[in-house]
Amino acid sequence: MASAGEPFAALTCYDATTARWLERAGVHVLLVGDTAAEMVLGYSRTIDMPLDVLIALTAGVKRGAPSTVVMADMPFLSYHTTDDAALKNAGRFLTEGLADIVKLEADASFAPLVSRMTRAGIPVCAHVGTRPQQVALTGGYVSTGKTPKQAAQIVADAVALEQAGAVLLLIEAVPDAVTAEVLQATTVPLIGIGAGSAPHGQVLVLQDVLGLTDNPPPFARPIAQLGASIQSAAENFMQLVSNRRIGTRSDPAVQSPQSAGSASTGARPSTN
């Protein structure tokens, strides 16, 4: 798609049920991001994401969307201590986590690690530009690439990581001009997030797109307002319970028009 100039779409995803619906929609790439620390586990930082939990979530997404490319985020400290540990953890994402590719927040200094992973047969997406796992060093989430020195470093990082074997690049929260320079200097597909419209693909956090977060970033304008819908549905459910209308099979108010299904579509047998 990148070679043909056809933009591709990526969204974060953290569970099999949501993955099934996103695959039906035709989303090209599902990213099981370390943002699960915030979206799923309730932390305020991505660096609190446990490795074993993210591997399990990744496997669930792949089981829900077996025909979709699933990319796994390697969380904080899962690839920073030793190259041996990083290689083992990346391999776990492919075997236990069923991932198709792993993503590292990286600069040029990670090129030897990317090269080693590539030699082992592990596809790598290199995440350049703003790197949320570095938030403790920057005092908060801030964009980068605003100075000529920063811009040049981001381009150099992208080139070095591609040369090391990265098969995909992701660039986050940089000026459009920096994205353009990276596109000109590299040949592998580039996914953007808050980096302008020029990248081959775009990724956003699904909860931002669906209107489930209270303060989405400015580049992630909600397309739906499912938060309000969930709240309304829960309020309606509470009213049905209050009126003793839950628990009967014949109440049309609580029957779905698409209740028929099979195991392959996520239907569950009655437990009554």
Helix content: 25-40%
Question: Please, what is the average pLDDT?
Answer: 93
Major pleated sheet: 8 strands, parallel, barrel
Question: What spatial form do the alpha-carbon principal axes imply?
Answer: globular
Strand order of the largest sheet: 1-2-3-4-5-6-7-8
- The parts where pLDDT drops under 50 for at least 5 residues are 257-264
Summary tags:
single chain, 272 residues, alpha/beta, 2 domains, 8-stranded parallel beta barrel, 10 helices
Topology:
Layout: E1 8-12, H1 16-25, E2 29-32, H2 36-39, H3 51-64, E3 69-73, H4 83-95, E4 101-105, H5 111-119, E5 124-129, H6 135-138, H7 148-164, E6 168-172, H8 176-185, E7 190-193, E8 201-204, H9 206-209, H10 226-242
Parallel strand pairs: 1-2, 1-8, 2-3, 3-4, 4-5, 5-6, 6-7, 7-8
Task: Explain what the structure shows.
The protein is α/β, with parallel strands linked by helices. The chain folds into 2 domains: 8-224, Alpha-Beta Barrel (TIM Barrel); 227-265, no CATH class. Helix content is 38%, strand content 14%. The protein contains 10 helices and 8 strands. It has helices at residues 16-25, 36-39, 51-64, 83-95, 111-119, 135-138, 148-164, 176-185, 206-209, 226-242; strands at residues 8-12, 29-32, 69-73, 101-105, 124-129, 168-172, 190-193, 201-204. An 8-stranded parallel beta barrel has the order 1-2-3-4-5-6-7-8, surrounded by 4 helices. The longest helix is centred in the middle third of the chain and has 17 residues, at 148-164. It is globular and about 65 Å long. 39% of the residues are buried. Mean pLDDT is 93; it is low at 257-264.
